[in-house]
């Protein structure tokens, strides 16, 4: 399904060649809308967003038609709009005027609050703070134990005066925790609460009492990035019932498109502040609006790709590729082969390719790529001349026939390899920045961690806190 | 009157306005059925004869449901083993306790296995449930091999003539190959000693279109035999489950409707489909 989405986008853009008429734009926006729906953006938001794109595109139609690549121009508009909505309000954690700063975590069951509490504590601690974790989920069996284990693993104390499992009053635990924190000089208090559905009035009321009692500086609504259309209803229920200041998206290491992020931000006007990206304590990051935009659009996420590649592709191979990138050299059959070999080793090939824009076909082929095929591919490539290896265009019929004889493989196999290579070469070219769909940025080199500029900027906004420590939380990372 | 009924009254009288079609589309999309399936329903509905439109639409949607048995398997001459799998936080551990309760109430002797050795306090969570429902549970050390917990549990279950063994596993995202391999190993090791009869994939009703990916990958990796849709007591309709049944042909066996052990029901397709249209 998601492949279909990627394909749809490729075809939307390739359909927009030459002069773009108003009716082209209409078709385009309705396709955008469908694509957003497939990414779990809620209907009303998909509607209003695509309408806005339409208006903007009409406004700028002259500029679009003048550009050499109108499709790219429109994509820029879409991507920018999305990035702006997602990142418009990005900000750092607000400190209390007088310590402790109280952070309340709320959300549905299974959203990932307890794990997040530990990550947040660890993150704050790494920045020189002295957080306290508070076990106020007294409902789910052993939620208290879970928080204790998590707290232990990051060396952060856990305030857990009640055993939980249905015993104890979360409101009074929350209240007591503040005195405890002041006493022990903790400058942050992170309160974990029980998950609840947005329609459980009694439990929403309870959350309200907790909030009224501790008067948190920050209430974070924690939401699973796999959530579907219900995201809006739920976010509204929590906003109206309890209120929150920012959103944390969890399980972003999965392959959900995460359209809910857009829905929630649009509807609640609250910013997404953090992203939770795995089960380990360090799998926690700032929220990067531009990454999320590409993800929702199904256009791949070059920054994440570069990071995964860095982890997965052996040092040597990636160094070689990086050099080529830097020198602007042609991507050759040999690179293709060594890349296939490297990728074969890393297991996470589908994930990696899922992150590539326009790599839909390539991904499918590589998924079906077994070891014997690797051997056959090598045989074919080794039967090519150096010229042929770097330039597939010279591979005419007679050359292909010769390679076929030399490698003992059928012509059809040679043909399909050449086609596959051409596709890979194209992707590589795009990644170098030349024909890259706008807004995705270029790939500065696979050997280095990538920090897209836009992401940094969005966090360089003025501090809203009066914290003298001046240690921007967001820079800790 | 529900939208469903209103609409079909309108279809009968042959006067559905474009607005009303949009409204139906909106309702169905909001239930997470997925835009493609929704359009399929609408297209067919538009071309239906007015008289029997209600029936035909219900039929159409019902035809997407799996025709496989929704009953939990039961082997009469040997141990029946159920493996509970799914992504993080969907309700696996709770569902394990719920299914155990149901089986115990039906007169079976049930053993639990806490094969989530990874998440903090996951073992303790299942132990608490086991105490509450008064049934034994086999556990392992934190971070030990889940397959060895499963092995110990199977050995005990066979030696002590349990009728059912239910193995709770750690939540894992389907795109993590190593974790899927780990699950494959649990199945292989268990199978060597006693056949795994049911592999139930737990899907959260709030899940969007990603549910389809989850189902596909878990089916490929560990041969899922059916689904449990949890958290249907919330405001989510769980429409992706219908899309999943349609694509995989496998049945939803249970639905979870709350946090207590009794909040588990067999899948009622009529109520579920009506829910999607409301
Ligand atoms: N409202 C509601 N909550 C549920 C249901 N099933 C489970 N839950 C809740 O969802 C949360 C997560 O449930 P668990 O059973 O711990 O989920 P899990 O899949 O075992 O989680 P991990 O092992 O961490 O992946 C808990 O708070 C449960 O009480 C349900 O049907 N309805
Ligand atoms: Mg569990």
Outline the secondary-structure elements:
The complex is a heterodimer of chains A (477) and B (278).
Chain A: H1 2-15, H2 22-38, H3 43-59, H4 61-66, H5 70-87, E1 101-107, H6 113-126, E2 131-136, H7 143-153, E3 158-159, H8 170-183, E4 188-193, H9 201-214, E5 218-224, H10 230-241, E6 246-250, H11 260-268, E7 272-276, E8 284-286, H12 289-297, H13 302-312, H14 315-327, H15 333-346, H16 349-354, H17 360-367, H18 371-382, H19 386-390, H20 397-407, H21 411-431, H22 453-458, H23 473-476
Parallel strand pairs in A: 1-4, 1-5, 2-3, 2-4, 5-6, 6-7
Antiparallel strand pairs in A: 7-8
Helix pairs in contact in A: 1-2, 2-3, 3-5, 5-12, 6-7, 8-9, 10-11, 15-18, 18-20, 20-21
Chain B: H1 3-12, H2 18-30, H3 35-46, H4 53-63, E1 80-85, H5 92-105, E2 110-115, H6 122-133, E3 137-138, H7 146-159, E4 164-169, H8 177-193, E5 196-204, H9 210-222, E6 226-230, H10 240-248, E7 252-256, E8 264-266, H11 269-277
Parallel strand pairs in B: 1-4, 1-5, 2-3, 2-4, 5-6, 6-7
Antiparallel strand pairs in B: 7-8
Largest contact between protein chains?
Answer: A-B, 54 and 49 residues
Instruction: Report the uncertain regions of chain B.
Output: none
Radius of gyration of chain A, whole Å: 26 Å
What is the quaternary state of this protein?
heterodimer
